[in-house]
UniProtKB/TrEMBL annotation:
Family as reported in the entry's similarity comment: Belongs to the glycosyl hydrolase 51 family.
Highest taxon above the source species: Bacteria
One Pfam family this sequence matches: Alpha-L-AF_C
Protein's organism: Hymenobacter defluvii
Name of the protein: non-reducing end alpha-L-arabinofuranosidase
Length: 492
């Protein structure tokens, strides 16, 4: 099968499903009437950074001065609702004015190495977002930048009639970009990075100033504030919660050498981080802001604080390229991605957005060389979940096979149950859910856990997709070993 998501997600494979006449091994029970929260469409976002070949040689062909059409097609088929830029850690040395207008200075990338010619900047990023149908998410420089610079970026993107809005118009972009999502820095607690805000009180003082000037430019923008360890989060939430729409959380899973199953232990630890952060938000950030001085001259946040998992993914040792971040992902990693997405659904009430880090070449679902591009194994669960999962998370439990990873969602008409089997054996489950009509199974499998797609054989796709209509009245389903399956049926 070629690396085409159109082919992957549109093929119908007729035929009966494996059927068991004896007692089922496990029971999957779904309660569509027990909502776990609304699943934000923004949890399916992506991320690009000025890092290695993520932009130049990734989304952008610097020789032809255009976005790579082969890559654009693949990113479009992911349907990302949100795209984060320009970082990441590089935010700490990035100055947006270098990347607009005709005269763009070449700068040394002090964070990731190499040179940045700034051929891709704000206007190009906005163009890319529009071609994808994705909302832009910008992070501002709180290290070598200033609050005035950040506010002027808001003015450039969202203003009308003012100096920087006029500069945007002169650069060929008359209409405001209406950027709603703005990150105040990135991982500011990290002492190794450029910047001086490792003390949370220093970050709080500076974040207030940034927020004031940026909100005075556009009161409607939403702010993502930097999260970190519990003590940091507590102080941020206690003192900044009136202007904190989202608190960031970064999650990178990995496995131990020679132990693919350890990846799922790592992912389980990520779930504990989500629960702990959600508990802190509940304790230190009231759902509504009751008192907020009118002299701020802009309103406080309008909704409860949510978690922004604005960097998540699988980060293993042994990659190539800049900082060894160009990874070959196996089928085991694809199973891990599906487990992550199930986790996001189960915690839908707490999570407001998420962006996979990153999109092309760097810890990425898409890899390129000078002549071609491929979709890695992790691309396919990302695409399938975005296509099929509903907007409301509902309760689902598994008895008798607790190692299966399960989440359920609905749009009020169709129930979607997502199952990940990280182990090698097939397992039979009884489907206990108030549905009517027939189930449809969307199955992703691969020959082995080590299977991967490579640039050396770009026309070979190790990922197999099958869409099967189960016989009417089927109540038992066989989950294949090392598989991802999304089961769908009409609700009763």
């Amino acid at each position: 099968m070629k690396n085409s998501t159109g082919a992957l997600l549109g093929t119908m494979v007729p035929g009966p499903i494996n059927y068991v006449w004896g007692a089922p091994v496990a029971t999957l029970t779904v309660h569509p009437d027990q909502s776990l929260g609304e699943i934000s469409p923004l949890i399916y976002g992506q991320f690009i950074e000025h890092l290695g070949r993520a932009i130049y040689g990734g989304i952008y062909d610097d020789q032809k001065h255009r976005f790579r059409p082969d890559v654009l097609e693949k990113v479009r088929d992911l349907h990302p609702p949100l795209l984060r830029y320009p970082g990441g850690t590089v935010t700490k040395i990035y100055h947006w004015k270098d990347g607009v207008g005709k005269h763009r200075p070449v700068r040394k990338n002090l964070i990731w190495g190499g040179l940045d010619n700034n051929h891709v900047g704000t206007d190009e990023f906005m163009q890319y977002c529009r071609q994808l149908g994705a909302a832009p998410f910008l992070t501002v420089n709180m290290s070598t930048g200033t609050a005035e610079e950040a506010a002027e970026w808001v003015e450039y993107c969202n203003g009308t009639g003012t100096y920087y809005a006029t500069q945007r118009q002169k650069n060929g972009h008359a209409a405001p970009y209406q950027v709603r999502y703005w990150g105040l820095g990135n991982e500011e607690a990290a002492k190794e990075d450029a910047g001086t805000l490792q003390n949370p009180q220093d970050y709080i003082k500076k974040a207030w100033y940034y927020a004031k000037l940026m909100k005075l430019q556009d009161p409607s923008i939403q702010l993502i504030l930097v999260g970190d360890k519990p003590d940091w989060n507590q102080q941020i939430l206690q003192e900044l919660h009136p202007i904190c729409d989202y608190l960031s959380l970064h999650l990178y899973a990995s496995s131990k050498p020679g132990d693919p199953a350890s990846l799922f232990t790592s992912i389980a630890a990520m779930e504990a981080s989500i629960k702990a952060t959600a508990a802190q938000i509940k304790e230190y950030a009231p759902a509504t802001v009751e008192t907020f001085s009118k002299w701020y001259r802009f309103p406080p946040r309008q909704q409860p604080v949510k978690i922004a998992i604005d960097e998540w993914g699988i980060w293993e040792a042994g990659g190539r390229g800049a900082y060894n971040l160009e990874m070959d992902y196996t089928w085991n990693h694809a199973l891990g991605v599906a487990a992550f997405l199930n986790m996001f659904q189960r915690h839908a009430a707490a999570i407001g957005l998420a962006t996979w880090a990153q999109t092309v070449n760097v810890l990425a679902p898409i890899m390129t060389n000078e002549t071609t591009s491929i979709c890695q194994t992790i691309y396919y669960p990302l695409a399938l979940y975005r296509k099929l999962c509903g907007p409301t998370s509902v309760a689902a439990t598994i008895a008798g096979a607790e190692h299966l990873d399960v989440a359920a969602s609905t749009d009020g008409k169709t129930l979607t149950v997502a199952i990940v089997q990280p182990r090698g054996q097939a397992i039979d489950i009884r489907l206990d859910a108030p549905t009517t009509g027939s189930w449809t199974a969307h199955e992703l499998t691969a020959p082995s856990l080590e299977s991967m797609n490579t640039l050396q054989t770009p026309d070979t796709n190790v990922v197999s997709y099958q869409k099967r209509a189960l016989p009417y009245g089927t109540t038992t389903y066989t989950v294949a070993g090392h598989s991802i399956v999304l089961l769908q049926a009409p609700l009763r």
